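Workshop exercise sheet. Pairs work together: one partner reads the sequence aloud, the other fills in the structure field after running the prediction. Swap roles for the next sheet.
Pair: D.N. / O.F.
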Amino acid sequence: MSNPLPRVSIVLSISESSIGLEHALAAIAAQTHPNVECFIVALNARDSIRATLARFHEKITPLENDSTDPISQLNRAFAMSRCEIMTWLDANERLFPWACERAANLFEQLPEIHWLTSTLDYQWTPDQFCVAGKTGLGYARATFLRGRHLPGAAAFQYPIRRAGTFWRRSLWEQTGGRINALLEDAGDFELWARFWNRAQLAACELPFGGRQAAVPNFMHTPRYFKAAQRALGRTLPTGSPYRLAETLRRQLTRRIPIFKDRWSSYPLYVLNTNMQEKFSARTIPMA
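Structure field:
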C-alpha cells in the first residue's frame, strides 16, 4: 500500500489589484491533490472580494482582517497552516490543476529536494488564453547572488517564479519560519535568499503555474528592486568570505584562460521531463 502524498498548504494574499482573484480561487478548487488547504489573507477586503471568497468557502479559509499590520497577518496565515509542503501566491497568480499533486509527488520521491520550482513561464491574457513565456535553464546560488534572477539587475535573465515554487515546512522553519516583507517589498525574493543559505533549488520542466498578463508585476518596480538588493546585501554582506572569493573568481576568470574554462559555469539541478530520474546536472555560463 503506497504512502499518501504530502499535504500542501497555500497562502494567498490579496492586495490592491485583484482582478484575477476568481481565476486564482477556481484553480485552487480544481487541484487534483486530495489534501490541499488554502488560507486567504485579504489585505484589502472590499465587498466584491468578500463576495468572491464566499463562492469558494468550501475550499478556502479566509482570515479576518484585524488591526495588525499586513506582514503579521501573512505570518498568522502561515502559522495556521499545518501541511508538509508550502507555497505562497497572490490573487493575480494561479496554479495548473495538477501543480500541487505533482509537486507533492516529487517531494515524496526525492527526499533530497527541499524547495522546488519550474523552468517554465506562463501568463493568462485578459481573454484567459494561456500563453507560454521565456523558459529558464535552471538556478544556482552563485547566479542568484549575482542578480541573474532579479528583474532590473544588469545580469538579469529570468526570475524565480512564485507561482509554482514549493518548499518543505522543515526548510521554512530552519530559515526563520516567517515572512519579513510584503510582495511589493520583495518579500518572496527575501525568502528565496534565506532558502539559498540552506538548500539548492531544484527545477523541473513541468508547468506549475503563472500569472495574469494584464496585471503589473511587483517584480518590475523600483520599490521591489531596491528591497531585493537590500535582501541580497544581508545574504552576502560586504567582507564575507564568500563575497571575497567571488571577487577573486571574477578577476581570475577574466585574465587567465585556464580559470575561465574551469570557473565560468555553475551546476544547475533540473529534473528530467519524464520525472523518472533524479537530478541531472547542467551548467550555466556566467558573464
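Discussion prompt: The CA atoms of residues 269 and 281 lie 5 Å apart. What would you look at next?
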